[in-house]
Amino acid sequence: MKTIAWVVMSVSVLLLAYLLVKKKARAGWLVAFGAHLAIAAIGIYLVNYSGWITQVHIPLNPVTIGTVAILGLPGVGLLYGLKLVLLS
Q1: Nearest CA to 55 among 15, 17, 88?
Q2: For position 23, what pLDDT does the model report?
Q3: Plot region of 61 (φ>0 → left; ψ -120 to 50 → alpha; else → beta)
Q4: Which InterPro entries does the record associate with it (predicted)?
């Protein structure tokens, strides 16, 4: 099972690299996307450890960081609401 996952991931990375080379994409979007991910991780960290929300801890993982990177501040609210609904 692990081998299949590695093969799928490797093929996906190779196809993504092929598309980037074929389209001659600039690295600017990659830098902007990385900055959004970093800001999202910092935002979740600040919400977790600032004391604003004491009942719920939002984990720092790729799914939560990606959600906040795409949705912005409403993404933190979404994760908070989901955590409250799923815990009760």
Answers
A1: 88
A2: 72
A3: beta
A4: BofA
Stated pTM of the model: 0.62
Give 78's contacts (C-beta < 8 A, 6+ positions apart): 67, 71
In the structure encoding, which two tokens stand for residue 40, read together?
């999202």
Long-range contacts of 32-35 (CB under 8 A, 24+ apart): 33/69
pLDDT in tens, the chain (88 residues): 778 878 888 888 888 788 777 776 676 777 888 888 888 888 888 888 887 767 778 888 988 888 888 888 888 888 888 888 887 6
Find the helix packing angle between 62-71 and 73-87, rounded to 10°.
130
Q: Give dist(CA 55, CA 29) in Å, integer.
A: 36
**Residues 48 and 77 sit within 8 Å (Cβ to Cβ):** no
The CA–CA distances, whole Å, from 37 to 17, 54, 77 equal 20, 24, 17
